[in-house]
Amino acid sequence: MDSTGRATTSAARARACEVLVATGVTLSCDDVGSPAGVPVLLIHGHPFDRSMWRPQVDALVDAGYRVVVPDLRGYGQSTVVPGTTLLSDFARDLTHVLDHLGAERAVVAGLSMGGQIAMEFHRRHPERVAALVLAGTSPVAETEQGRDFRNALADRLLAEGMEGYAAEVIDKMIAPHHVTGLPEVAGHVLGMMRATAPAGAAAALRGRAGRPDYRSTLRDVRVPTLVMVGADDTCTPVAQAELVHGLVADSALVVVDDAAHLPNLEQPERFNAALLAFLDAHRAALAPPHPLLEYLLDAAEGRFPPADGAVTVLPALPGGLECSVAFTGHAVVATALPAAQVHAHAPDGFGGSLSPDFLRALAGPGGWIGGVDATLVHLGTGGTPRLRPLTDADGHPRVLYARELRSHVRVFGDERGLVTLAAGLAGRTELSIELRQPADGGRRHGRALLADALTLIPEGEPVYAAVAPGNARSLRAFLAAGFTPIGAEALVRTDRSQT
Protein backbone atom coordinates (compact mmCIF):
# COMPACT_ATOMS: atom_id res chain seq x y z
CA MET A 1 0.00 0.00 0.00
CA ASP A 2 1.01 3.64 -0.45
CA SER A 3 0.35 6.45 2.06
CA THR A 4 -3.37 6.06 1.39
CA GLY A 5 -3.40 2.35 2.18
CA ARG A 6 -3.62 1.15 -1.42
CA ALA A 7 -1.71 -1.97 -2.44
CA THR A 8 1.79 -1.49 -3.85
CA THR A 9 4.60 -3.72 -5.08
CA SER A 10 5.74 -4.75 -1.59
CA ALA A 11 2.49 -6.69 -1.13
CA ALA A 12 3.74 -9.19 -3.67
CA ARG A 13 6.96 -9.64 -1.70
CA ALA A 14 5.30 -10.05 1.71
CA ARG A 15 5.37 -13.33 3.60
CA ALA A 16 2.26 -13.22 5.80
CA CYS A 17 2.54 -15.02 9.12
CA GLU A 18 0.48 -15.62 12.22
CA VAL A 19 2.55 -15.77 15.39
CA LEU A 20 1.22 -17.25 18.63
CA VAL A 21 2.60 -14.92 21.32
CA ALA A 22 0.53 -16.05 24.31
CA THR A 23 -2.27 -18.48 25.04
CA GLY A 24 -5.10 -17.47 22.75
CA VAL A 25 -3.24 -14.44 21.37
CA THR A 26 -2.00 -14.39 17.78
CA LEU A 27 -0.32 -11.51 15.98
CA SER A 28 -0.78 -11.05 12.25
CA CYS A 29 2.47 -9.95 10.59
CA ASP A 30 4.11 -9.25 7.27
CA ASP A 31 7.72 -10.33 6.71
CA VAL A 32 8.86 -8.48 3.61
CA GLY A 33 12.11 -8.40 1.65
CA SER A 34 15.18 -10.59 1.55
CA PRO A 35 15.58 -12.87 4.58
CA ALA A 36 19.30 -12.04 4.38
CA GLY A 37 18.66 -8.31 4.88
CA VAL A 38 19.08 -6.46 8.17
CA PRO A 39 15.71 -6.85 9.96
CA VAL A 40 13.73 -3.65 10.62
CA LEU A 41 10.81 -4.05 13.04
CA LEU A 42 8.14 -1.36 12.49
CA ILE A 43 5.74 -0.78 15.43
CA HIS A 44 2.57 1.13 14.65
CA GLY A 45 0.87 3.66 16.89
CA HIS A 46 -2.60 3.98 18.42
CA PRO A 47 -5.24 3.48 17.12
CA PHE A 48 -3.78 2.26 13.85
CA ASP A 49 -2.52 -0.95 12.25
CA ARG A 50 0.46 -2.13 10.26
CA SER A 51 -0.77 -0.52 7.05
CA MET A 52 0.40 2.85 8.38
CA TRP A 53 3.97 1.78 7.54
CA ARG A 54 3.39 0.79 3.92
CA PRO A 55 5.31 3.74 2.37
CA GLN A 56 8.29 2.83 4.55
CA VAL A 57 8.04 -0.89 3.77
CA ASP A 58 8.40 -0.23 0.06
CA ALA A 59 11.41 2.06 0.52
CA LEU A 60 13.17 -0.23 2.99
CA VAL A 61 12.68 -3.37 0.91
CA ASP A 62 13.95 -1.59 -2.19
CA ALA A 63 17.07 -0.64 -0.20
CA GLY A 64 17.74 -4.28 0.74
CA TYR A 65 16.33 -4.42 4.26
CA ARG A 66 14.11 -7.15 5.68
CA VAL A 67 11.00 -5.50 7.12
CA VAL A 68 8.87 -7.05 9.86
CA VAL A 69 5.47 -5.34 10.29
CA PRO A 70 3.05 -6.74 12.89
CA ASP A 71 -0.42 -5.71 13.93
CA LEU A 72 -0.14 -5.27 17.70
CA ARG A 73 -2.49 -7.25 19.93
CA GLY A 74 -5.88 -5.55 19.89
CA TYR A 75 -5.30 -3.93 16.49
CA GLY A 76 -5.72 -4.80 12.83
CA GLN A 77 -6.00 -8.52 12.20
CA SER A 78 -4.41 -9.58 15.50
CA THR A 79 -6.29 -10.99 18.47
CA VAL A 80 -8.30 -8.47 20.48
CA VAL A 81 -7.47 -8.78 24.18
CA PRO A 82 -9.80 -6.82 26.49
CA GLY A 83 -8.82 -5.43 29.87
CA THR A 84 -5.41 -3.77 30.17
CA THR A 85 -2.48 -4.20 27.81
CA LEU A 86 0.79 -2.91 29.24
CA LEU A 87 3.66 -1.68 27.10
CA SER A 88 5.60 -4.63 28.49
CA ASP A 89 2.94 -6.97 27.04
CA PHE A 90 3.42 -5.45 23.60
CA ALA A 91 7.20 -5.69 23.94
CA ARG A 92 7.02 -9.34 25.00
CA ASP A 93 4.81 -10.12 22.02
CA LEU A 94 7.40 -8.62 19.69
CA THR A 95 10.19 -10.81 21.08
CA HIS A 96 8.07 -13.83 20.09
CA VAL A 97 7.66 -12.38 16.60
CA LEU A 98 11.42 -12.00 16.18
CA ASP A 99 11.99 -15.48 17.61
CA HIS A 100 9.46 -16.93 15.19
CA LEU A 101 11.28 -15.31 12.27
CA GLY A 102 14.75 -16.31 13.52
CA ALA A 103 15.85 -12.68 13.92
CA GLU A 104 18.16 -12.32 16.91
CA ARG A 105 18.51 -8.53 16.52
CA ALA A 106 16.62 -5.87 14.63
CA VAL A 107 16.37 -2.18 14.03
CA VAL A 108 13.40 -1.33 16.26
CA ALA A 109 11.30 1.58 14.99
CA GLY A 110 8.11 2.93 16.50
CA LEU A 111 5.82 5.93 16.15
CA SER A 112 3.81 7.45 19.02
CA MET A 113 2.71 4.52 21.20
CA GLY A 114 4.93 2.40 18.97
CA GLY A 115 7.89 4.54 20.03
CA GLN A 116 7.08 3.89 23.68
CA ILE A 117 6.87 0.17 22.95
CA ALA A 118 10.27 0.45 21.25
CA MET A 119 11.68 2.08 24.39
CA GLU A 120 10.17 -0.66 26.53
CA PHE A 121 11.58 -3.31 24.18
CA HIS A 122 15.05 -1.75 24.51
CA ARG A 123 14.70 -1.52 28.29
CA ARG A 124 14.00 -5.23 28.50
CA HIS A 125 16.13 -6.56 25.63
CA PRO A 126 18.93 -4.11 24.75
CA GLU A 127 20.98 -6.96 23.27
CA ARG A 128 18.29 -7.47 20.61
CA VAL A 129 18.24 -3.86 19.42
CA ALA A 130 20.64 -3.03 16.59
CA ALA A 131 19.35 0.54 16.27
CA LEU A 132 16.39 2.63 17.45
CA VAL A 133 14.05 4.90 15.51
CA LEU A 134 11.75 6.89 17.78
CA ALA A 135 9.17 9.01 15.95
CA GLY A 136 6.54 11.31 17.42
CA THR A 137 6.87 9.87 20.90
CA SER A 138 7.51 10.83 24.52
CA PRO A 139 9.65 9.12 27.18
CA VAL A 140 7.88 10.78 30.13
CA ALA A 141 5.58 8.85 32.45
CA GLU A 142 1.92 9.84 32.35
CA THR A 143 0.74 12.61 34.66
CA GLU A 144 -2.15 12.07 37.06
CA GLN A 145 -4.35 14.18 34.80
CA GLY A 146 -3.20 12.19 31.78
CA ARG A 147 -3.97 8.89 33.52
CA ASP A 148 -7.48 10.07 34.29
CA PHE A 149 -7.95 11.18 30.68
CA ARG A 150 -6.78 7.88 29.20
CA ASN A 151 -8.90 5.79 31.53
CA ALA A 152 -11.95 7.94 30.81
CA LEU A 153 -11.31 7.71 27.08
CA ALA A 154 -11.05 3.93 27.36
CA ASP A 155 -14.49 3.84 28.98
CA ARG A 156 -15.89 6.13 26.29
CA LEU A 157 -14.57 4.00 23.41
CA LEU A 158 -16.12 0.90 24.91
CA ALA A 159 -19.44 2.69 25.26
CA GLU A 160 -19.54 4.65 22.00
CA GLY A 161 -17.14 2.95 19.58
CA MET A 162 -14.41 4.58 17.49
CA GLU A 163 -16.37 6.75 15.03
CA GLY A 164 -16.77 9.90 17.12
CA TYR A 165 -13.24 9.72 18.49
CA ALA A 166 -11.76 9.33 15.00
CA ALA A 167 -13.61 12.41 13.76
CA GLU A 168 -12.41 14.44 16.74
CA VAL A 169 -8.70 13.65 16.43
CA ILE A 170 -8.11 13.42 12.68
CA ASP A 171 -6.87 17.04 12.59
CA LYS A 172 -4.34 16.20 15.34
CA MET A 173 -3.12 12.98 13.78
CA ILE A 174 -2.41 14.86 10.53
CA ALA A 175 -2.11 18.60 10.11
CA PRO A 176 -5.51 20.31 9.77
CA HIS A 177 -4.81 21.50 6.22
CA HIS A 178 -3.91 17.94 5.23
CA VAL A 179 -7.39 16.71 6.17
CA THR A 180 -8.67 18.42 3.04
CA GLY A 181 -5.41 18.84 1.14
CA LEU A 182 -4.44 15.15 1.33
CA PRO A 183 -7.87 13.48 1.24
CA GLU A 184 -6.54 10.01 0.47
CA VAL A 185 -4.15 10.16 3.45
CA ALA A 186 -6.97 11.45 5.64
CA GLY A 187 -9.19 8.63 4.43
CA HIS A 188 -6.54 6.04 5.22
CA VAL A 189 -5.97 7.39 8.76
CA LEU A 190 -9.70 7.62 9.45
CA GLY A 191 -10.18 4.10 8.09
CA MET A 192 -7.54 2.65 10.42
CA MET A 193 -9.03 4.39 13.46
CA ARG A 194 -12.60 3.41 12.67
CA ALA A 195 -11.62 -0.22 12.05
CA THR A 196 -9.81 -0.61 15.38
CA ALA A 197 -11.65 -2.74 17.92
CA PRO A 198 -12.77 -0.54 20.85
CA ALA A 199 -11.76 -3.24 23.35
CA GLY A 200 -8.22 -3.36 21.96
CA ALA A 201 -7.87 0.42 21.91
CA ALA A 202 -9.24 0.70 25.46
CA ALA A 203 -6.86 -1.96 26.78
CA ALA A 204 -3.88 -0.09 25.30
CA LEU A 205 -5.08 3.24 26.72
CA ARG A 206 -5.29 1.76 30.21
CA GLY A 207 -1.83 0.25 29.83
CA ARG A 208 -0.28 3.52 28.65
CA ALA A 209 -1.88 5.34 31.57
CA GLY A 210 0.47 3.44 33.87
CA ARG A 211 3.56 3.45 31.66
CA PRO A 212 7.02 3.88 33.22
CA ASP A 213 9.34 6.82 32.67
CA TYR A 214 12.00 5.99 30.09
CA ARG A 215 14.32 8.94 30.60
CA SER A 216 16.79 7.03 32.76
CA THR A 217 16.99 4.06 30.39
CA LEU A 218 17.43 6.29 27.35
CA ARG A 219 20.68 7.49 28.89
CA ASP A 220 21.91 3.88 28.64
CA VAL A 221 21.20 3.52 24.92
CA ARG A 222 24.39 2.60 23.05
CA VAL A 223 23.05 1.85 19.61
CA PRO A 224 22.53 4.26 16.72
CA THR A 225 19.33 6.19 17.34
CA LEU A 226 17.21 8.40 15.08
CA VAL A 227 14.61 10.72 16.62
CA MET A 228 11.94 12.08 14.27
CA VAL A 229 8.98 14.39 14.75
CA GLY A 230 6.56 16.41 12.67
CA ALA A 231 7.17 20.14 12.94
CA ASP A 232 3.44 20.69 13.59
CA ASP A 233 2.89 17.77 15.98
CA THR A 234 0.68 18.84 18.90
CA CYS A 235 0.35 15.32 20.38
CA THR A 236 4.09 14.97 20.99
CA PRO A 237 5.60 18.39 20.25
CA VAL A 238 9.10 18.99 18.97
CA ALA A 239 10.21 19.65 22.55
CA GLN A 240 9.59 15.97 23.38
CA ALA A 241 11.77 14.88 20.47
CA GLU A 242 14.48 17.29 21.62
CA LEU A 243 14.25 15.73 25.10
CA VAL A 244 14.80 12.23 23.66
CA HIS A 245 17.62 13.53 21.46
CA GLY A 246 19.33 15.08 24.48
CA LEU A 247 19.08 11.88 26.50
CA VAL A 248 20.46 9.49 23.87
CA ALA A 249 24.14 10.08 23.21
CA ASP A 250 25.10 10.57 19.56
CA SER A 251 21.48 10.37 18.41
CA ALA A 252 20.24 12.17 15.31
CA LEU A 253 17.20 14.46 15.32
CA VAL A 254 15.10 15.14 12.23
CA VAL A 255 12.14 17.54 12.28
CA VAL A 256 9.86 16.88 9.31
CA ASP A 257 8.35 20.11 7.99
CA ASP A 258 4.69 20.35 7.06
CA ALA A 259 3.70 17.31 9.11
CA ALA A 260 1.91 16.69 12.39
CA HIS A 261 1.73 13.40 14.31
CA LEU A 262 2.09 11.07 11.30
CA PRO A 263 5.02 12.43 9.28
CA ASN A 264 5.56 9.01 7.71
CA LEU A 265 2.18 9.37 5.95
CA GLU A 266 1.98 13.13 5.54
CA GLN A 267 5.50 13.48 4.12
CA PRO A 268 6.58 9.94 3.19
CA GLU A 269 9.37 11.03 0.81
CA ARG A 270 11.03 13.23 3.43
CA PHE A 271 10.50 10.66 6.17
CA ASN A 272 11.92 7.84 4.05
CA ALA A 273 14.92 9.89 2.93
CA ALA A 274 15.88 10.61 6.55
CA LEU A 275 15.26 7.02 7.64
CA LEU A 276 17.30 5.48 4.82
CA ALA A 277 20.15 7.98 5.23
CA PHE A 278 20.34 7.05 8.92
CA LEU A 279 20.23 3.30 8.34
CA ASP A 280 22.69 3.38 5.46
CA ALA A 281 25.14 5.44 7.53
CA HIS A 282 25.08 2.72 10.20
CA ARG A 283 24.65 -0.34 7.97
CA ALA A 284 27.93 -1.91 9.11
CA ALA A 285 26.96 -1.54 12.77
CA LEU A 286 23.58 -3.13 12.12
CA ALA A 287 25.12 -6.39 10.99
CA PRO A 288 25.30 -9.31 13.46
CA PRO A 289 27.98 -8.94 16.18
CA HIS A 290 31.50 -10.04 15.36
CA PRO A 291 32.10 -13.58 16.69
CA LEU A 292 34.98 -12.32 18.85
CA LEU A 293 32.42 -10.58 21.05
CA GLU A 294 31.11 -13.93 22.27
CA TYR A 295 34.60 -14.89 23.47
CA LEU A 296 34.91 -11.59 25.34
CA LEU A 297 31.47 -11.86 26.92
CA ASP A 298 32.15 -15.44 27.99
CA ALA A 299 35.45 -14.38 29.54
CA ALA A 300 33.67 -11.68 31.52
CA GLU A 301 31.60 -14.47 33.08
CA GLY A 302 34.63 -16.68 33.74
CA ARG A 303 34.20 -18.98 30.74
CA PHE A 304 37.37 -19.29 28.67
CA PRO A 305 38.38 -21.32 25.62
CA PRO A 306 40.35 -24.50 26.35
CA ALA A 307 43.98 -23.98 27.38
CA ASP A 308 45.19 -26.17 24.53
CA GLY A 309 47.79 -23.89 22.99
CA ALA A 310 45.68 -23.49 19.85
CA VAL A 311 44.85 -20.40 17.82
CA THR A 312 41.31 -19.76 16.57
CA VAL A 313 41.07 -17.66 13.40
CA LEU A 314 38.03 -15.41 12.91
CA PRO A 315 37.09 -12.89 10.18
CA ALA A 316 38.62 -9.40 10.27
CA LEU A 317 37.04 -6.66 12.33
CA PRO A 318 35.02 -3.90 10.64
CA GLY A 319 36.85 -0.78 9.53
CA GLY A 320 40.05 -2.45 8.34
CA LEU A 321 41.24 -3.45 11.81
CA GLU A 322 42.59 -6.85 12.80
CA CYS A 323 43.65 -8.14 16.18
CA SER A 324 45.15 -10.89 18.27
CA VAL A 325 43.61 -11.64 21.67
CA ALA A 326 45.36 -14.05 24.01
CA PHE A 327 43.54 -15.87 26.77
CA THR A 328 45.24 -18.39 29.06
CA GLY A 329 46.55 -21.10 26.75
CA HIS A 330 44.42 -20.10 23.76
CA ALA A 331 44.50 -17.21 21.28
CA VAL A 332 41.91 -15.73 18.95
CA VAL A 333 43.04 -13.87 15.83
CA ALA A 334 40.62 -11.78 13.76
CA THR A 335 42.10 -11.27 10.30
CA ALA A 336 41.37 -11.26 6.59
CA LEU A 337 44.24 -13.71 6.05
CA PRO A 338 43.31 -17.34 5.34
CA ALA A 339 43.59 -19.55 8.40
CA ALA A 340 46.28 -21.65 6.73
CA GLN A 341 48.42 -18.55 6.20
CA VAL A 342 47.97 -17.52 9.83
CA HIS A 343 49.03 -20.95 11.08
CA ALA A 344 52.00 -20.95 8.70
CA HIS A 345 53.56 -18.28 10.95
CA ALA A 346 53.34 -20.75 13.85
CA PRO A 347 51.64 -18.60 16.50
CA ASP A 348 50.46 -20.40 19.59
CA GLY A 349 48.11 -19.86 22.49
CA PHE A 350 50.91 -19.43 25.02
CA GLY A 351 51.89 -15.89 24.00
CA GLY A 352 53.19 -16.51 20.49
CA SER A 353 50.16 -14.81 18.95
CA LEU A 354 51.37 -11.51 20.47
CA SER A 355 55.01 -11.82 19.46
CA PRO A 356 56.48 -8.96 17.39
CA ASP A 357 57.19 -11.25 14.44
CA PHE A 358 53.64 -12.56 14.27
CA LEU A 359 52.05 -9.13 14.68
CA ARG A 360 54.23 -7.79 11.86
CA ALA A 361 53.15 -10.71 9.67
CA LEU A 362 49.55 -9.92 10.54
CA ALA A 363 49.85 -6.19 9.84
CA GLY A 364 51.94 -6.48 6.71
CA PRO A 365 55.17 -4.57 5.96
CA GLY A 366 53.48 -1.16 5.97
CA GLY A 367 50.84 -1.78 8.60
CA TRP A 368 50.35 -0.14 11.98
CA ILE A 369 50.74 -2.21 15.16
CA GLY A 370 49.27 -1.02 18.42
CA GLY A 371 50.77 -1.81 21.78
CA VAL A 372 50.10 -5.03 23.62
CA ASP A 373 47.53 -4.25 26.31
CA ALA A 374 46.17 -6.13 29.27
CA THR A 375 42.46 -6.84 28.79
CA LEU A 376 40.45 -6.04 31.91
CA VAL A 377 36.75 -6.32 32.69
CA HIS A 378 34.32 -5.15 35.35
CA LEU A 379 30.53 -5.25 35.67
CA GLY A 380 28.62 -2.00 35.72
CA THR A 381 27.03 -0.86 38.95
CA GLY A 382 24.27 1.27 37.44
CA GLY A 383 22.20 3.54 39.62
CA THR A 384 22.38 7.32 39.52
CA PRO A 385 25.26 8.43 37.24
CA ARG A 386 27.94 10.15 39.28
CA LEU A 387 29.71 11.82 36.33
CA ARG A 388 28.34 14.47 34.01
CA PRO A 389 28.67 14.49 30.22
CA LEU A 390 31.47 16.76 28.95
CA THR A 391 30.71 18.79 25.84
CA ASP A 392 33.99 20.71 25.61
CA ALA A 393 36.46 17.81 25.38
CA ASP A 394 36.36 17.03 21.65
CA GLY A 395 39.93 18.20 21.18
CA HIS A 396 41.36 16.28 24.13
CA PRO A 397 44.05 13.77 23.02
CA ARG A 398 42.33 10.93 24.88
CA VAL A 399 39.08 11.63 23.05
CA LEU A 400 40.77 12.03 19.66
CA TYR A 401 42.57 8.70 20.11
CA ALA A 402 39.36 6.96 21.15
CA ARG A 403 37.60 8.18 18.02
CA GLU A 404 40.39 6.88 15.79
CA LEU A 405 39.74 3.28 16.83
CA ARG A 406 36.25 3.22 18.33
CA SER A 407 32.71 4.37 17.59
CA HIS A 408 29.93 6.01 19.61
CA VAL A 409 32.46 7.72 21.85
CA ARG A 410 30.92 9.48 24.85
CA VAL A 411 32.84 11.67 27.28
CA PHE A 412 32.15 12.22 30.98
CA GLY A 413 34.09 13.66 33.86
CA ASP A 414 34.57 16.24 36.57
CA GLU A 415 37.41 18.22 38.12
CA ARG A 416 39.44 14.99 38.64
CA GLY A 417 39.59 13.95 34.99
CA LEU A 418 37.66 12.53 32.08
CA VAL A 419 36.22 9.17 31.15
CA THR A 420 35.48 7.86 27.66
CA LEU A 421 32.92 5.17 26.94
CA ALA A 422 32.80 3.74 23.44
CA ALA A 423 31.97 0.75 21.27
CA GLY A 424 35.37 -0.85 20.84
CA LEU A 425 36.88 -4.19 19.91
CA ALA A 426 34.18 -6.41 18.33
CA GLY A 427 31.53 -3.97 19.59
CA ARG A 428 32.27 -4.40 23.30
CA THR A 429 31.76 -1.44 25.65
CA GLU A 430 35.17 0.06 26.49
CA LEU A 431 36.19 2.52 29.16
CA SER A 432 39.27 4.68 29.54
CA ILE A 433 40.20 7.43 32.00
CA GLU A 434 42.69 10.24 32.20
CA LEU A 435 43.34 12.34 35.30
CA ARG A 436 43.73 16.08 34.83
CA GLN A 437 46.80 15.93 37.06
CA PRO A 438 48.61 12.58 36.66
CA ALA A 439 50.15 13.00 40.11
CA ASP A 440 46.65 12.66 41.53
CA GLY A 441 46.90 8.95 40.92
CA GLY A 442 48.79 8.71 44.18
CA ARG A 443 45.77 10.22 45.91
CA ARG A 444 43.57 7.40 44.68
CA HIS A 445 41.66 9.76 42.40
CA GLY A 446 41.98 7.26 39.55
CA ARG A 447 40.35 4.50 41.58
CA ALA A 448 37.55 6.85 42.67
CA LEU A 449 36.99 8.09 39.13
CA LEU A 450 36.69 4.51 37.91
CA ALA A 451 34.19 3.68 40.63
CA ASP A 452 32.07 6.63 39.55
CA ALA A 453 32.47 5.66 35.89
CA LEU A 454 30.94 2.25 36.62
CA THR A 455 27.66 4.00 37.51
CA LEU A 456 27.43 4.93 33.81
CA ILE A 457 27.16 1.23 32.92
CA PRO A 458 23.88 -0.63 33.59
CA GLU A 459 24.11 -2.96 36.55
CA GLY A 460 25.62 -6.30 35.63
CA GLU A 461 26.66 -5.31 32.11
CA PRO A 462 30.38 -5.88 31.34
CA VAL A 463 32.67 -2.98 30.49
CA TYR A 464 36.22 -3.57 29.25
CA ALA A 465 39.49 -1.68 29.42
CA ALA A 466 42.71 -2.14 27.47
CA VAL A 467 45.61 -0.97 29.62
CA ALA A 468 49.30 -0.99 28.73
CA PRO A 469 51.15 -3.03 31.39
CA GLY A 470 53.95 -0.47 31.36
CA ASN A 471 51.48 2.17 32.54
CA ALA A 472 51.78 0.74 36.02
CA ARG A 473 49.98 3.55 37.84
CA SER A 474 46.94 3.22 35.60
CA LEU A 475 47.01 -0.57 35.80
CA ARG A 476 47.14 -0.42 39.61
CA ALA A 477 44.14 1.94 39.63
CA PHE A 478 42.06 -0.40 37.48
CA LEU A 479 43.00 -3.42 39.58
CA ALA A 480 42.30 -1.55 42.82
CA ALA A 481 38.88 -0.57 41.44
CA GLY A 482 38.07 -4.26 41.01
CA PHE A 483 38.77 -4.81 37.31
CA THR A 484 39.73 -8.41 36.51
CA PRO A 485 42.42 -9.38 33.95
CA ILE A 486 41.07 -11.81 31.36
CA GLY A 487 43.82 -11.74 28.73
CA ALA A 488 45.95 -9.53 26.51
CA GLU A 489 45.40 -8.01 23.09
CA ALA A 490 46.94 -6.09 20.23
CA LEU A 491 45.27 -4.19 17.39
CA VAL A 492 46.73 -3.82 13.93
CA ARG A 493 45.74 -1.79 10.88
CA THR A 494 46.94 -3.70 7.87
CA ASP A 495 48.93 -2.65 4.84
CA ARG A 496 50.02 -5.68 2.86
CA SER A 497 50.61 -3.77 -0.37
CA GLN A 498 54.36 -4.49 -0.25
CA THR A 499 53.99 -8.25 0.08
Structural commentary:
The chain has helices at residues 10-13, 54-62, 87-101, 113-124, 144-160, 163-173, 176-181, 183-195, 198-209, 215-218, 238-247, 263-266, 268-281, 283-286, 292-300, 339-344, 356-363, 397-405, 445-453, 472-480; strands at residues 14-22, 25-32, 39-43, 66-70, 106-111, 129-135, 225-230, 252-256, 311-314, 321-327, 330-334, 368-369, 373-379, 388-389, 407-414, 417-423, 429-435, 462-467, 484-493. The chain contains 20 helices and 19 strands. The longest helix has 17 residues, at 144-160. It is 37% helix and 23% strand. Helix 11 (238-247) links the parallel strand 7 (225-230) and strand 8. The strands form 3 sheets. Strands 1-2-4-3-5-6-7-8 form an 8-stranded mixed sheet, sandwiched between helices. The protein has 499 residues and is an alpha/beta fold. The protein starts with 9 loop residues before the first helix and ends in a 6-residue tail after the last strand. It is elongated, with a radius of gyration of 25 Å.
Estimated radius of gyration: 25 Å
Quick one: overall form?
elongated
Task: Estimate percent helicity.
Answer: 25-40%
Largest sheet: 8 strands, mixed
For the largest sheet, list the strands in their spatial order.
1-2-4-3-5-6-7-8
The proportion of residues in beta strands is 15-25%
Distance separating the two termini: 55 Å
Helix count from the secondary structure assignment? 20
Number of strands: 19
Average residue pLDDT = 92
